[in-house]
Each structure stands twice: as C-alpha cells, then as structure tokens.
C-alpha cells in the first residue's frame, strides 16, 4: 500500500470514528448527562481506534490529526491541557478555523469594526440581543469579514434592556443602527419593533450567538430574490464543534418540532440540497417585508419567545401559499442557548417552548392534521418530494464549460427539472468539484459524495436511491459498476446512456493507428455495450446512426437523445470582414481532440499557410496535453481553458474540426452551429447530424482537401454567408424545447412498459 493510500485509509477511518465519538459526547453534554459518556462501554473501542490512528500518523511524521482550533484564547495550564485532551480524542476534529470566535477576534479588531451606511438597503439584518456582548461583537465581526460588498445592507441591533455594557459598546460601532429597549420586550417584540423601522426590501433575522460564514447572505437571497413563489429562506446551522444543528425544521401532527439532522454528519447528502422545509429556525431566516406586512408580522400570541418562527413559516405556507426553503449553502455557526438556555426549566425563557407548543397546535390544528406523527423525520422531509426521482450516474459532476459530454448532461439536468423530476447525482469520482457542486445544490439536486471511503459511499448510494423511479447511468463502465443498485431496487427503470458507442470509437482509432491492442479493446467494449443495452429498460443513443447500429445487433429498446444546443442570447455578431483566423475547441482529456489538434497543426496548417500565411489558428479547450502545448508558436495560439467562448466564436472566421476518429455527436460541431460560425470538418466530425457538404458545413477527409475547403470558406464571403444561414436552421432540431419533447416521450414509454 502506497503512502498516499495509507494516508487516505487513515483519514477515512478517522472521519468515521470521530463522528461517532462526537455524536455521543456532545449529545450527552447538552443533556447534562456527561458522566454516562465515560461509562458507555460501547464507546471505548472508538476511543482506542482513534488513539491508534493518531499513533500511526505520528510514526509517519504527520501531525495533521492533532491540529485543531480553540473557541477561546487558552491562557491557563488547565485550559491548555483540557483542549489537548479533547483534540487527542477527536472532539475538535470537525472544527474549522472559521467556526471559532478567536479567528474573528484576531482578524477583525474593534477599531476596524464598522459598516457602510446604506440609505436604500436591499436587506435589513436584525440582531436582537440581551446581554452576551462578546457573542454580539463576534457576530458583527463575522458580518464585517464575510458579507459581500455587492449587497447593500443595514444592520440593526436591538438591545433588549441588557444589563452589561452592550449599549455603550455597540453605540461605538459606526454603521450599526442601535435600538435600545427601556424594558425587556423579549425576542418576539424586539424583532417586531426593529422590522417596523427597517428600510430593506428583505428582512433577515439573525441571532447574536452566531458566526456567519462566506456566502451566507448571498445564498439566503438566491432562492427568493427572483422567485415570487418563495416566501422564506433559512440557513444550515452548524454547532460550534462542527456537527450539524439543523438542516431545516420538522413539524409533527401534535405541534412538536425537531431539528432535522441534529448532531449528524454535516456532509451527508440528505442535509445538503436546497428543498422545502416545514419551518426554519429564526436564528437565521430571510423574507420579504411586503409578505411580513401582509401577515401582520410575528404573532404576539407567542410572547415573549419560542414558536414565533415556526408560526410565521406556517403562515407563509398556509396563508400566502408560498414556499419555505432550506438552503444548505447559507451556513453559519450557532452557539445554541446562550441567552435562553438549552433546556426548559421553570421560570426561564426556554420554558415558553412547552407552553407555546400548545398554543401553536391549537391555532393550526386543521393544517397539522395533514402532517405526520412524531419520530417520522425522514418521511416528513421527503413529503415535499411529490414528483418521481431520477438518479444520474456519471464520471464526475457536469463540467458544462469544459467538455461536450458534461455540457449535454447539464442541459439534460435542466430539462429533467422542467419535467418536474427530483434529481440525485452520483459522480463516480465522489468529488464536490466547484462551481458545479454549488450549482447543483442550489437547484435542489442531491449529490452523493465519497468523503469517508468506498463502503460508506456505496451505503449512501443505496440509501439515496431507495425512492428512485429511474436510473440514468452514463457510459458502459459506470452502468456495470453501479448495477448493484438494482439488487436493492429491483423495480427501478434503468436507462443506459451510451454517450457514444465506445467500441465504434475504439475500432476507428485502432484502424487509423494500426493498433491491435486498441482493436482488442474495441471487441471487449462491444460485448459489454451490447450486453448492457439488452439489460436496460431503454438504451439512449446520441445519434440515429448509432441507434441503427444497435438495432442491427438486435437491440430494439433504443431511443435517440442528442446533444443539446441553445442559441446564444447575444445575437449581435461580427460580419465576415470583421473576423479573422481559425478556431478549434475541444477538451484535451479526450484523445480524438489531441489527435485532431496535432494533425491540424502538422499536416493541414502548412498547406493553408502556403495560400495565406497571415492566418492564425486558436486552440481552445480544457487541459491541453504536452504534445498540444508544444505546438504553440506565433501562428498557433494554445489558449487552454477559457471561461467565455463567445468572444472566440464572434471574432474567428472559420471553425475547423479535423477529427480522424471518434463516435457519437460532436459537441464542438453543434456549438459552432449554434454560434453561427461556419465549419470545415471531416465525415466523422459531421456524423449523425444530417449535415451536407457545401450546405450546412464543408466536409473533407484528407489534408489537401481540408486545406482547400478551409481557404475557400475563409476567403469567399458568399459561401461563408450561405453556410452560416443554413447552419442556423440545422441546429434548431437540437434545442432544449425539441429534446424535452423526446425526453417526455421516453419517460412515457417507461411508464407503460
């Protein structure tokens, strides 16, 4: 086993062991029953394994397992010793530096703590406080460090008759509007008072015992800002030791409530996709002031505190008929119970939680009759998923801006959502690649990640797919690898998306390069692909050419779902004489693109330069290999990955795609057609799109002919315009609206099988 494998094995097991230790310890601690933690004999195996893992890492001169961050400055020997013991036994394992007050105290001294005054803020952030000045200051520090500059906010602190120095200290902070209550009004009335004078279009209620993290406010705004059907958005609450506090709240039939995911793994997929929730805790919620006014504000029935947030969420849903949304990308740390305590005791504010449950249950008894009985957490969460569930399996998250296959999957996802399907995505590499992970998450798509080893990854997949109606598995290898899902869900409808027929691509490569090894691989792939196609409920082909090949092999359950190309929104494009140079686009992780780029530069471009030495070729695409990078010179520009392709498509005169082997529909061809850039390609490049030589594209299969047709298209404005106009009509068959019709038909066929 290599050093890296050993490290990964230690990390995976350490994660799982520390999760168990943290759950048990902090649950006991919150209930005041910590002594039971130490007499739990089932716990000691976890503690022993944790120590062994630490020793293994130390022997390997790796002390990462003992690195952690303290919530406070350690000034005494006993505090330092206590902290080191907690680190040793994994009790600080899930703590990130940005979760700790010390981080904000260090990076935001009080003399730098100030905010810009906004006369017309978009959001009014309201922070009710009663004593606990240090928590309020740390909350404000986190706002200063983590709020985005492009969102205008006003910050209102409501000092509810604090007896410490809150009034004096907060008054010194420029840009914070301070409201001082002469008597203690309680949380509910403090919020009402502040909201009355708030200037923002949106109101955000924020507890003072919180630390907001990056993108907290942006992700509260994202779901609601442009969607009038959304009435309220709440955050993901993380405990200061790193475990989850709440991923949306659950309300039961009797009016009792629970925090979904409390003390659980913060990375588990069920807690990490945008969805509807029964309610979101008022520690961090955002809503429109207009909606608040329409509901006459927080109900004073629940004075002084507790259940006012649950009641308001119910009013948003059942009176305004709007959605209450939980967004896991809006994260903050919550030091729960700092002001009111964690457990209800006679005489404390927390005791109103019990009294107000009775009031809430009576007020909403008709609506609550449709809710589930207590202890049905998973079913309560899943009741909002009324639609069918589709599980997508692919190599990685859809890198829509880097390769054709991923772009197609991303476009399919958008159509699946428009067909009202609930989506789960399984990336085979198990990684939360950005920005793709956040994009899927905020669109309500569950993503199953591999962060604690293959066994847990498999178990998470089994758990996630138990409600699945369809499996959409891309590529032959992944269809075979994930066939275990069928053992646990035998009635699921299986859709095998070939992406392209791999054996056709390998056959062509083997013949071109005269490689017996590649031809042998092609035979193996053909046997595998035909076997998978026979077992699938439907096999999706990307072109009618490949569909016919499968039909010829006796596979009848096929359907064509091509690449998808929406026409660019910007229709202002340069004319013929405003353009120059040639363009080639392709991901260089795909070997046919590497071969095409080399053949183009070494065999075709010298012939073109004989006719026109001023022409340059631009090679654009993700991850160019050494052999592609080495092509670069004054006339060959290797750009690699670029975020925006439109400037290239709008400035170059001709798109060239000299593909000598490959299979399926070529995304680069469709993309160029969508941008209206005339193309010279090969027979293989134009395959499956009903493109005719001299009409929608120019086709050539040897260097001399390819160069001649490129020069002709480059120098003849009439031919260029003809090809351009014909190409625009040919791409309409691959628009999202056309493919949506085909997909609706596919699911209809499956429903009647």
Automatic annotation (TrEMBL):
Q: Where are the transmembrane segments?
A: 34-59
Domain of life (superkingdom): Bacteria
Quote the SUPFAM superfamilies the UniProt record gives.
Nucleotide-diphospho-sugar transferases, UDP-Glycosyltransferase/glycogen phosphorylase
Q: Where is the Glycosyltransferase 2-like domain?
A: 124-235
GO: which molecular function terms?
transferase activity
Q: Which PANTHER family match?
A: RHAMNOSYLTRANSFERASE WBBL
> What is the name attached to this protein's record?
Glycosyltransferase
What lineage is this protein's organism placed in?
Bacteria, Pseudomonadati, Bacteroidota, Sphingobacteriia, Sphingobacteriales
